[in-house]
Description:
Elements: E1 2-14, E2 17-30, E3 32-33, E4 42-43, E5 53-63, E6 66-75, E7 78-79, E8 96-97, E9 100-111, E10 114-121, E11 138-139, E12 142-143, E13 154-161
Antiparallel strand pairs: 1-2, 2-5, 3-4, 5-6, 6-9, 7-8, 9-10, 10-13, 11-12
Amino acid sequence: MKGLDYTLRYRNDVGPGSVLFNLAVTQYTEVSSKLFDEDPLEDYVGMIDNPEFTGTADISYAWADWRVRYGVEWVDGMSSYEYYGENPATSQYDLATDDYYLHNASVQYSRDGWTATAGVRNLFDENPPTISAGVYNRVGNAPLYSGYDYLGRTAFINLTKSF
């Protein structure tokens, strides 16, 4: 596996607090493997389970004891039609996924060593993309890929204490 990581971070004081923006993108330039020494090295970048790009972006605003955050996770669309010699227009298989976006939001309050955070993951209850059976491992009809959310919208509350 080979790739590049890009990171952008910006912070600025605004009003009574400060805004922080983070962007992180990973570009995979090679995802390859072979079973035996004499086998050709096959590159799987862009195919199902191996997106060429993934990324996260979030913006937060902090003032006094409060912080609000909004974030987006992104998985690039993937296609395995070419690898299997299939024409997307005539294939009996669905071997492609669109770009996938997962939105998250939270509010945090910190004081006297205590921190309480409440939020929602998969804010818009986005389902993962689907593919056909019989070619790749799946969860339901979605590719088995760690960048997808299989639970749907979930709420959380975290309470921590620093000593």
